[in-house]
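Structure representation:
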Amino acid sequence: MKQFAAWFNDAVTAGEILPEAMTVATSTQSGEPSARMVLLRGFDERGFGFFTNYDSQKGIELAENPRAALVVYWAKLGRQVRVSGDVVKQSADESTAYFHGRPLASQISALASPQSQVIPNRAVLEEKVRALTAKYAGGVVPLPDSWGGYRVIPTTIEFWVHRDNRLHDRIRYTRLAAGGWRIERLAP
């Protein structure tokens, strides 16, 4: 995690656009994969966090199959980090704190959007946002029951660095059952 933190800080310093952008890949219980971009919202020794609607496609897939893979790519640095591991929901307190720290418009949008569900048109969503904005003007937007955080607890983390002629550097950390990590160099 210290290595990831150093690389993340390098990405911020390098001026990467959205250095916290990452791909989250999930799959159904039967193995049908899907991937999408989300924002990394915190990382520490417990893992990598992000927030979403639990009723979204990724939320449903994580309920069926609580494992995920993450990819963070920083083009300016020629670096990539791949993570795979088990997924747990963050605590209600963590989700509430994060939710209420977001801009009001983002809170309203989370409450208004039935993420990943079919809607008849954009106007329906925009009207719902207008109604909720009026309802909660000057008040506290409640945390939706269907919204919160996930944490990916890494079992493997791979650090990749671009090198000329496809001789990239790849270092994989694998969590050991007894604690600690095994560190291995992989061929590019």
User: Anything to note?
Assistant: The first helix runs from residue 2 to 13. The radius of gyration is 19 Å. The beta strands are 21-27, 33-39, 43-44, 47-53, 67-74, 79-89, 147-161, 169-175, 181-186.
